[in-house]
Amino acid sequence: MVIAGSNGREFTGGLSEFDVGATTVRRLILELDDRYPGFGDYIERRMAIAIDGEIHQDSYGAELGPDSEVYLIPKIGGG
Amino acid sequence: MSKQHVTTTVNGDPTEFLAAPGTTLLDALRDELGLTGAKEGCGSGDCGACSVVVDGRLVCSCLMLAPEAEGRRIETIEGMAQGGRLHPLQQKFLEHAALQCGFCTPGFLVAAKALLERNPDPDETEIRYWLAGNLCRCTGYDKIVRAVMDAAAEMRQVRRAS
Amino acid sequence: MTDVMDRPALRVVGERPIRPDGVDKVTGRAQFGADFNLPGMLVGKIKRSPHAHAKIVSIDTRKAKALAGVKAVVTAADFPDLASEEVEAGEAAGNLRDLSMNCMARDKALYEGHAVAAVAATSAAVADEALALIEVVYEVLPHVIDVEAAMAPDAPVLHEGLFTKGVEPKPTAPSNIAAVNKLGRGDLAEGFAQADVIVEARYTTKAVHQGYIEPHACIAQYGQDGQCLVWCSSQGQFMVRTYCAKILDLEAADIRVIPSEIGGGFGGKTTVYLEPLAIALSRQSGFPVKMVMTRDEVFRATGPTSGAVVEVKLGAKRDGTITAADVVLKYQAGAFPGSPVGAGSMTALACYDIANAAITGYDVVTNSPKVAAYRAPGAPISAFGMESAVDELARKLGMDPIAIREKNGVVSGVKAVYGPTLRDIAYKDTLEAIKSHPHYSIPLGPNQGRGLAAGFWFNIGGESTAAVRINDDGSAVVATGNPDIGGSRASMAMMAAEVLGLPIDQVRPVVADTASIGFSMLTGGSRVTFATGMAVVEAAKKVVEDLKQRAAQMWEVPADKVAWENGAAVCLDPEKPAAKPLSIAAIAARAGRTGGPITAEVGLNAQGAGPGFAVHLCDVEIDPETGHVTVLRYTAAQDVGKAIHPSYVEGQIQGGVAQGVGWALNEEYIFDAEGRMENPGFLDYRVPVASDLPMIDAILVETAPNPRHPFGAKGVGEVPIVPPLAAVANAVRDALGLRLTDLPLSPPRIRAALDARAK
C-alpha cells in the first residue's frame, strides 16, 4: 500500500509504502491506526482509497485482494 | 415616502399597482404583481435577465422606474405563451436544449422575440450581437443561437404559408 | 450491473427528449431562490467590512435596534464561538470555525466585503437605514492579496494561530502558508539529466468568479417551536442543513431545507453564506426573513477561485519523450485555508506518463474572499501552466502538439503520476477525435493562430438517495436529493424510464427536500448523473422486481416465472399459456390487493467514478491595433463514457469552454491599493457574451464506458473547463509568435506585449 503525495506522512514518520494484511478498507484503516495512532481518523477525514485504480471515497466494505494495488490519495471534491 | 398609483397594461391586460417613486419596474413586476419570470442578476443593466418589452422596446426592467410605466404597454415572459401553446422560440429552446439552469432563459426569450419582430431572418452574427446584452453562464450560447435561428426559420415558414 | 448495459438496444438513454422541467423554465414559472415570498416576511441585509484587513474593535448596534421597523440585528456575538473542527457535509471536509467566521466576522475582518453584522427589517429601505446606523470601530491592518507577497516572511499575517502544515521541522512562527503538499515519483535530477531539451517558465492566473447569473438567495423561518424551514438556492439542500445546524448549534432534525431551482452554481453554491444569518435573524425576530445578495455582494463576498502562480520545468528527449517534470503551484485560498491546490497538484500531470516528476503545492491565505469550488477546482490553473509548457516543448522539438501528447499520453493500465493505475480511459481516442476533425487542418490567415490543450478531471461518486414510486395509473415519480443545475432531471427520468420500460413522459422527476428523501451529497464533482443515476437505476430495478412479484401473484405463478420486457411483466410459465403480458398500469391498478403501494427508495455510496479527459482545439485572430482576441473556431472532444442525454452533455462541454475562454481572455478580480475590489459588476468583470464566441463543436467520445455505471456514464460537467485556458493561450502564442504567460490575455496585455516587441 502506498501513500501518494506528502499528505498524511506526518503520521507515519515519513514512510509512504507499507505491507498490509487487511482484506477490506475497514481492516486497512484499523490496521494503519494501530500502527500509527490517529492516522485512521485522518484517512477517514481526508483521504480516498484507490484500489486497483478505482477510487473509493470512504467505503468500509470494499475488498482488497492479496495483489491489489492500494493508494491513499487526498479526498477529491468538485465544483 | 408615499407610493404612487400606476396604471399600465401588462401582457395585454389593464393593470394597476402601487410603487414608491424609487422602485424599479423589475421590483414592481416581481413584488407587486407576482410576475417573477423576470430575474435580477445584476441590477445594473448588464445581464439582461430582467428583460421586458415596453411599448415595443426591449428594456432592462431593473433600469426603469416603476412609475415610468404609467400608461405604457409592458410585455413579460409570462405573456409569451398563448393559452396552451408555447411560442415557437420557447418550443425551440426546449428542443435544442438551449437552457441549463434556466435562470437567464426568460430574458433571452424576451430579447430574442424582440429581435425576430424587427428582423425575421437574422444571421448568426446578428443574433449574437442582439443577444450580447443577455448573459448566460451555462450554455456557451451555442444552443441558444441555434434555437433562435431555428425558431426564426419556422416562423418565416408559417408566415409564408398563411 | 452489466445486465442493463448488455441490452441490445436502449430505448431512452442516448436519445434527446425534452427536459421534464423545461416548460416551467421557458415560461418564467420556475421558482428560483429569490422568487419565494412568505406572509409577514422581513428583509434581511448585511453590513460588510470596507477594509481588506482590520481588527474589529467594537460594534454598536443600539441605534439600529432602536429604529422603527427593525426587528433583529445580529453579529458574531449571536453565533456560538465554535472550536476548530472538521465537518463533513458529504463532500470535501471543511473547517467549521472558518465556515462560521466566513459567514460572520469575529474579531477580525479578513477581506473587503466580509460580513460584520446583519439586520432584518420590515422593508429594504429600513434595513438599509439600519445598516448605516450600526457603528463599527475598526483598527485597519496591513493587508496582502498577491499570493507570493502573502508567502513572504514579512507579510502581514492573517491568522496568528496558523502554522504551515506539511513541513519539517514544525514551524514556530505563524504564516500565511497554510500547507505545503508534495507529490511525485522517480528521480527528478536523473530525469533532467536524460533530457536533450528543457523548457521552463512561470505562469500566473488571477482570481476569477464562477459568475452564476442568479445571486445567492434564501428565506428562513424559525418557529417558536424551534422548527426551522429554509428555502434556498444551493447545490445541496443537505449541505445547507448540515452547515446551518453546526454553525447555529441546532439539531439537523429541526431544520428542513427546501431547494429552489438554482440559477447556476459551478461550485460557488457548495457552501453557505446567507442561510445561517437568515435563521439567526428569524429566530431573533420571530418572522420569516428573506435575504438576497446584490451582484456587488456576490463578487465581494462569495467564492472566486484562486489566483495563482504556476512554475513548470519540463525535460524531454529528442524523440519527444518527457523525462522529467517539476511543477510548483502557489494558490490563493482567500481568507481561510483551503485552496484547491491539492486537486491542482494531482491533475497537473494526469494526462502524461512521466517517469520522474515532482509537484509542490502551496495553500496560501490572503485578504480576499475565501475561495469556493469552481468547476474542476484547481485543475484549470495547473493545466494552464502544464499545457502551455508542453506546447513550448513541442515547438522546441519541432513536434506536432498532438504527436507529443500521443507520445507521452496515458492509456488504461498506466500508473498516473498521482498514484493509482488508470483504467477504462479514452484519452488517446480523444486526441484522435481532434486529429481527425476537419478543424485541425483548416488553413489559418494572417494574425491567426491555433492552440491545443488537454485536460483531466477525476469526477466523484459518493452518497445519493433516489426513490421510484409507481402511481395508480402506472406512471412513475422519481425523487432524488440533488438540485437540478443543468438538466439532471432529464437524465434521472431517462434512466428510470429505461429500466422500467416506460415512455419518458410517464416518468416525473422531482427534487425533494431534506425531510422527503434520504441524504444525498451535493450536486457537484460531476457526480449526479453517475452516482444519483446509480441510485435511480437501483431503485427502478427494485420496483421492477416488485412489479414482477405482483404479476406472479395475479397469475398465481412462482416469481421466477415472470420476466420483465418492454415495460410489462411476461409470464414464462408454460402452464399459463393464456397469461397476457401485464403492463405497469395493469399491475398498478391491483397494487392494493397485491401488497400495497409500489415504491422503492435506495441509498448508496457510489464508488469508482471514472475520470474524464478532454482535448480542445482553438483558433484565434488578434487585432494588432486594439489587442483584442477573437475566438474564431473551437472544437472540444471529451471522454464521456456514455452520454445519457447527449444534448446536455454537449451543453456542459460548451458551457465549460465559454467559462474557460472568459478566464483566459478577460475575467479577473482587480483590487485597488487598499485591497478593495474595483470591478464588482458584470460591466467591468467581463464574462463572455454571445458575440464573443463562435459555435463550439462538442465531440462525445464514447469508446470507454464506465463499467461501474449501469449505462456507462462518467461525470462530464467539470472536465471541459480544464483545457481552455491553455488552448486559448497556445493559440495566442501561435498567432503572435510570442508567449504570454500571465492571464487574462486582455487587450491591454496583448497591446503591451506587441509594443514591447516593436521596441
Explain how this protein is built.
The complex is a heterotrimer of chains A (79), B (162) and C (759). Chain A is an alpha+beta fold. Chain A has a single domain (2-74), classed as Ubiquitin-like (UB roll) (Roll). In chain A, 24% of the residues lie in helices and 19% in strands. In chain A, strands 1-4-2-3 form a four-stranded mixed β-sheet. In chain A, β2 (47-51) and β3 form a beta hairpin. In chain A, α1 (25-35) crosses α2 (39-46). By secondary structure, chain B is α+β, with helices and mostly antiparallel strands. Chain B folds into two domains: 4-79, Ubiquitin-like (UB roll); 88-161, Orthogonal Bundle (DNA polymerase, domain 1), CATH 1.10.150.120. Helices cover 35% and strands 15% of the residues of chain B. Chain B has helices spanning 25-32, 88-95, 105-118, 124-130, 142-161, and strands at residues 4-10, 13-19, 51-54, 57-60, 73-75. Among the domains of chain C are: 2-30 and 461-606, Aldehyde oxidase/xanthine dehydrogenase, molybdopterin binding domain (Aldehyde Oxidoreductase, domain 4); 142-419, Aldehyde oxidase/xanthine dehydrogenase, molybdopterin binding domain (Aldehyde Oxidoreductase, domain 4, 2-Layer Sandwich), CATH 3.30.365.10. Chain C has 20 helices and 30 strands. In chain C, the strands form eight sheets. In chain C, strands 3-7-1-15-12-13-14 form a seven-stranded mixed β-sheet, sandwiched between helices. Chain C has a five-stranded mixed β-sheet with strand order 9-19-18-17-10, with helices on both faces. In chain C, α12 packs parallel to α19 (724-736). Chains in contact: A-C, B-C.
